[in-house]
Amino acid sequence: MNVTRRQFFRVCAAGLGGSSIAMMGFSPTAALAEVRTFKLARATETRNTCPYCSVSCGLLIYSTGDKSKNSQAEIIHIEGDPDNPVNRGSLCPKGAGLRDMVQSPNRLKWPEVREAGSTEWKKISWNEAIDRITKHMKADRDANFMTQNKDGVTVNRWPTTGFLASSAACNEAGYLSVKVLRSLGMTTLDTQARI
Ligand code: SF4
Known about the structure:
The chain is an alpha+beta fold.
């Protein structure tokens, strides 16, 4: 390997700097661990699941503040949960950037509706959203439920409305979702795992 005089001095300076720091009792690894400890010392740790895909990696979410008048709760750090058997502390780039998604000004935090003929989205309450969804579902099912196919075979299906559930939900929630939707005759249900 050819090393120029300039490269030689640069390597020597870096090595000398590193060994001097180590001789002063600072290990770079230990120093990084210390910084992390200080940063998270007063934070609240909350376990959660990454919402992006069906892998459902475990997360540790660190936040400061509380709901008192004097402070505002804020997430300051998110990392993989080393105790979670799914990901053992690792996260893919999407999961590693989760804090940006959580704190994005573009994140939708409430239901919105765009009325027929309108170009504007309007904020509505969760109760109103659930009422409206229920009414739309009932009207569509009443209009399109099929008891038999064209050959006279009993099918009892509702093919005109689909349901997108969460792939990060627990087994019990998934089981209940499928039971309720199939009992209504819905044939199209999926999760974001395939998106
Ligand atoms: S961290 Fe990546 S792999 Fe894990 S659930 Fe999130 S998106 Fe999926």
